[in-house]
Amino acid sequence: MVGCVNKLLLILALLHQLRDGHCQQFGAELLRRIAPATSPDVQEEAVRQLIRRVVGNTAGNWFDVEVNKLLDTRSYQISLQQSGKVLIVGSDGVSICKGFHHYLKQVLHKDLEWFKTSIELPDNLQLPNVTLRSASASPIIYYQNVCTWSYSFVWWNLEQWRRHIDWMALMGINLSLAPNQEAIWQDVYTELGLSEAEIDAHFAGPAFQTWQRMGNIRGWAGPLPPAHRRLQQRLQQQILQAQRELGMSVALPAFAGHVPQPLQRIFPNASYSLAQRWNNFPDPYCCNLFVEPNDALFQQLATMFLRRVVQAYGSNHIYFCDPFNEMQPRLAEPDYMRATSQAIYNSMRTVDGEAVWLLQGWMFLQVDYWRDNLIEAFLTAVPRGRILVLDLQSEQFPQYQRTYSYYGQPFVWCMLNNFGGTLGMFGSARLINSGIGAARTMPNSSMVGVGITPEGINQNYVIFSLTLERGWSKNELQLSEWFDHFALTRYGVSDSRLTQYWQMLRGSVYDFHGLQRMRGKYVMNRRPGLNLKPWIWYNASIINEAWQLLLAAKEIVPLEDDRYAIYEHDLVDITRQFLQVSIDRIYVNLRSAYRKTQSDRFQYLAGKMLQMLDDMERILASGAHFLLGTWLEDAKQLAPSADQRIVYEFNARNQLTIWGPNGQILDYATKQWSGLVRDYYQPRWSMFLDAATLALESNVPFNATNFKLRVANEIELPFSNLTKLYPTKPVGNTWHISQQIYIKWNAFAKDSQFLHNNRVELGVNEGKARHRKRQPKQH
Ligand SMILES: *[C@@H]1O[C@H](CO)[C@@H](O)[C@H](O)[C@H]1NC(C)=O
Ligand SMILES: *[C@@H]1O[C@H](CO)[C@@H](O)[C@H](O)[C@H]1NC(C)=O
Ligand SMILES: *[C@@H]1O[C@H](CO)[C@@H](O)[C@H](O)[C@H]1NC(C)=O
Ligand SMILES: *[C@@H]1O[C@H](CO)[C@@H](O)[C@H](O)[C@H]1NC(C)=O
Ligand SMILES: *[C@@H]1O[C@H](CO)[C@@H](O)[C@H](O)[C@H]1NC(C)=O
Ligand SMILES: *[C@@H]1O[C@H](CO)[C@@H](O)[C@H](O)[C@H]1NC(C)=O
Ligand SMILES: *[C@@H]1O[C@H](CO)[C@@H](O)[C@H](O)[C@H]1NC(C)=O
């Protein structure tokens, strides 16, 4: 009986949404299909445990929770009870968590983040009598990029995941991905008759799974131990369980058409095409086969695979599948597109009548290929509301306008922000704030959610926090106030220097707009040469001023609740940013000294550059989250047996540096981490500066070919195979190191050897966006 009333009210709530134009009918149907089926009791208990993990075992003295399906979808209500405890009622587990997080920030002034998912509350805390209520303006709040699984999550264990899932719930995220699939494919391939050797040659190493799954590469950095496939599947099941208990839905992988070459031996009569060579990957790492979707074999494989996926993982009726990620379809014809998407969708429906297809809109960025008629054919071949498109980088290259809101198919507005998880401070706060509102209210908008789709995490936290809050909020955020409050809740203290610090970042590094493709290509992280062209979009002096403010605020930051650790993290980060930009500036001076054959000046500046790299290493080594050692040890720890540790370490090192057998995607997922600076970036620059000095002094032109060969053979390629150990604990006092660096280099900034050329050549090229023909890529 109660259940019936609930259902009735649920329908009324949906009708209410429709009347508001909140989302159109097909959108509402989609939302109903993919909603999690976890019972309110289970969600409540999962939330209670989460709150305990966040504030400790006394959580029950302060907070009560309740799932109430009668509330508006995605909403919460918070009030103080007579008992003195705060009651958080929400429409589902995730909404309660979002409310709880909101309470922590707005009432107790303490925020959380990736590195900090627990907080300390004073024992004698009296919770004030406040009443809060809120409903999300976005039915779906989405998170993850298929690449995040390789760039950031790849080595995580369950405990690391547990903290991250908590964070996701606290941010209100209710849809994400579960891409693990190798154990399932192993079964499928074996059943079809592939040999063990053929299967081993197909799977890429642990750090490169994402691109093998998408059919871009095969076998690279393998073999993937069979035990790894089983363990990762088990881990995926545990992650899914934790997410669903909290009321999240998770999209599972579906078959996109990519198969190992030897399958042709078994099915010689099927129609295949050879996948395009991706980023010059050589054989045998290149070129899977693509089974044509209209071939019967496609349906056979797709259903065989998806049945097992659902069996292993359960289902929220949503499946992701990207047949043409960074590869061109065989035919540029609407009929071909229609047939392809129909075949994919039908294969999903065969297994699950309620299936919704989650599609990355990334391929549509190839505007030269994906003309309107192709996109329309591809998208409208599937019934409305049965595809959910991720508009993958809406803050810079939105596609929802040119595709007429994806021809009516629902989409999620996503902020991508970074590629490869590179570390520079970067973001577009204003564009995010206005873009989400504009997309929601455009005529015929089919937007049903907001998401974040970074290739990597653990950088620029503020911009992710901002996007997710904007996703929840109906109205534009007041950015100035929002950043003030961010500072307050980040350090747990109100101080004008700290708020000014964040305001300065807001107006500089976090105010990017333009079409330049930002890929973390800072001079220090790049292969040295005489023709690099660094650019920045902001006034670098602001970094110095902000840094000075942060240094000055040391005494005010509380030690309680580990707030000082966050402060230290930010101090490392701003020092890192300063050095990175300064190295860019030294470089343009060096380049000019070389061109003018000013040998003495060149040598002087070369010395300074190497000192800056020393300082970079020193400051990073003092930060717990800037260590190569952690990445490598996490990788080795995941190896199922001791003799496989070497393969895992190779994977971990290769992804950060040469990305492929020969630098195919050189320095793409580059990281400013201690260890990497000392043993990779600095030696490269050192070799270059020596060679260039020699060229200047002996008056022969610098031989770039020769340098490339040497740097590749002596530094870049060997690095993947080394096994040197690095610390996993920070070394040195961050504040002192940062202060020393500040004093030293601010004096140098007035040095005449350095001063000229700064503005002209660094190319602060606001408004000079290069409109390139080539379209952006993510790897
Ligand atoms: C998120 O919450 C909304 C509202 O409850 C629901 O309709 C939608 O299905 C949920 N989405 C997911 C993916 O769980
Ligand atoms: C909180 O304040 C409201 C309004 O003033 C009052 O009605 C309510 O009784 C208070 N609750 C508690 C637990 O003090
Ligand atoms: C492929 O087609 C040929 C010619 O029609 C036929 O003889 C052969 O049996 C087919 N092979 C398979 C595996 O179906
Ligand atoms: C919105 O949709 C209607 C009905 O399909 C159509 O007539 C109208 O032109 C569309 N408006 C815009 C701005 O696309
Ligand atoms: C850069 O910022 C500094 C410090 O705020 C200021 O003095 C300077 O005029 C700015 N330069 C430009 C070109 O805006
Ligand atoms: C530059 O170095 C390459 C590779 O070592 C060599 O083959 C070439 O002859 C050199 N060029 C000149 C001009 O010395
Ligand atoms: C590094 O190890 C890989 C795989 O073990 C091997 O193929 C490669 O030749 C080695 N590279 C170098 C530069 O030693």
UniProtKB/TrEMBL annotation:
<dbReference type="InterPro" id="IPR024240">
    <property type="entry name" value="NAGLU_N"/>
</dbReference>
<dbReference type="InterPro" id="IPR024732">
    <property type="entry name" value="NAGLU_C"/>
</dbReference>
<keyword id="KW-0732">Signal</keyword>
<dbReference type="Pfam" id="PF12972">
    <property type="entry name" value="NAGLU_C"/>
</dbReference>
<dbReference type="Pfam" id="PF05089">
    <property type="entry name" value="NAGLU"/>
</dbReference>
<keyword id="KW-0378">Hydrolase</keyword>
<feature type="domain" description="Alpha-N-acetylglucosaminidase N-terminal">
    <location>
        <begin position="45"/>
        <end position="128"/>
    </location>
</feature>
<feature type="domain" description="Alpha-N-acetylglucosaminidase C-terminal">
    <location>
        <begin position="482"/>
        <end position="743"/>
    </location>
</feature>
<dbReference type="InterPro" id="IPR029018">
    <property type="entry name" value="Hex-like_dom2"/>
</dbReference>
<feature type="domain" description="Alpha-N-acetylglucosaminidase tim-barrel">
    <location>
        <begin position="142"/>
        <end position="473"/>
    </location>
</feature>
<protein>
    <submittedName>
        <fullName>Alpha-N-acetylglucosaminidase</fullName>
    </submittedName>
</protein>
<dbReference type="InterPro" id="IPR007781">
    <property type="entry name" value="NAGLU"/>
</dbReference>
<dbReference type="InterPro" id="IPR017853">
    <property type="entry name" value="GH"/>
</dbReference>
<dbReference type="GO" id="GO:0016787">
    <property type="term" value="F:hydrolase activity"/>
</dbReference>
<dbReference type="InterPro" id="IPR024733">
    <property type="entry name" value="NAGLU_tim-barrel"/>
</dbReference>
<dbReference type="Pfam" id="PF12971">
    <property type="entry name" value="NAGLU_N"/>
</dbReference>
